[in-house]
Design goal:
The protein is of the alpha+beta class and 209 residues long. 18% of the residues lie in helices and 39% in strands. Strands 2, 4, 6, 7, 9, 10 and 12 form a 7-stranded mixed beta sheet that branches. The longest helix is centred in the first third of the chain and has 19 residues, at 9-27. A hairpin with a 4-residue loop joins strand 6 (121-129) and strand 7.
């Protein structure tokens, strides 16, 4: 009797099945989803890609900050008179961790005697330059200071004895104002550029404030 040679049919069949499965799986490539130009996901990804940290595009949803003076829109002082001028800020949407404020004034009219930081404001740096009429103030802000018209600091100022009569102002320097968010990148908020001025009218025979 001639014996038939043994075959590996039982082994070959599972191998072919596995090979076929591998081919099917290899061919199943996930189709890339094309986003519409108007879809919210596309717009969000485009915004995140194009907007650098601190740009108005990112600032528009991460916060805004208003800077202002408080008190009467116009004050009256006599030559030699003194006053305390509060400077405030209003963070919108979320608290800020630090602020930078730069103000200018007429050095022929005013002398700034002192910068008085408010409670919860820790100055990093402050500088009074009465020769050119400019002050700089940089400080950390406590996280609980949030709301409208938060007091940053007050200026104790004096009108010079020989100051000319008429109107003079304290004003913010727009491109030197900043307020940073308490995130890892210290993202800068948008600073509202429509900044108020504090008008002070120098008149004779006016009581000091």
């Amino acid at each position: 009797m001639i014996k038939k040679p043994k075959t590996n049919r039982r082994l070959i069949t599972p191998f072919l099945l596995l090979l076929g499965s591998a081919i099917v799986l290899t061919g199943c490539v996930e189709k890339e989803e094309n986003l519409s130009d108007n879809s919210p996901q596309f717009l969000a990804e485009s915004l995140n890609t194009q907007a650098p940290v601190g740009s108005l595009q990112m600032q528009s949803h991460q916060g805004k900050t208003y800077f202002s003076f408080s008190g009467e829109p116009s004050l009256s002082l006599a030559p030699g008179g003194t006053a305390v001028l509060p400077v405030r800020f209003t963070p919108i949407y979320e608290p800020v961790s630090s602020i930078q404020v730069v103000l200018t004034y007429d050095p022929n009219v005013f002398s700034v005697l002192e910068i008085l930081p408010a409670e919860g404001i820790q100055p990093f740096y402050s500088l009074i330059q009465n020769d050119v009429g400019k002050i700089e103030f940089v400080a950390a802000v406590d996280s609980h200071l949030f709301g409208k018209d938060v007091l940053a600091f007050s200026l104790r100022l004096a009108v010079k004895n020989n100051a000319p009569l008429g109107e003079a102002t304290f004003q913010f320097v727009a491109n030197e104002l900043s307020a940073l968010l308490p995130d890892v990148d210290n993202t800068e908020t948008a600073v509202i550029e429509d900044l108020p001025r504090q008008s002070i009218v120098i008149r004779s025979s006016v009581s000091s404030l």
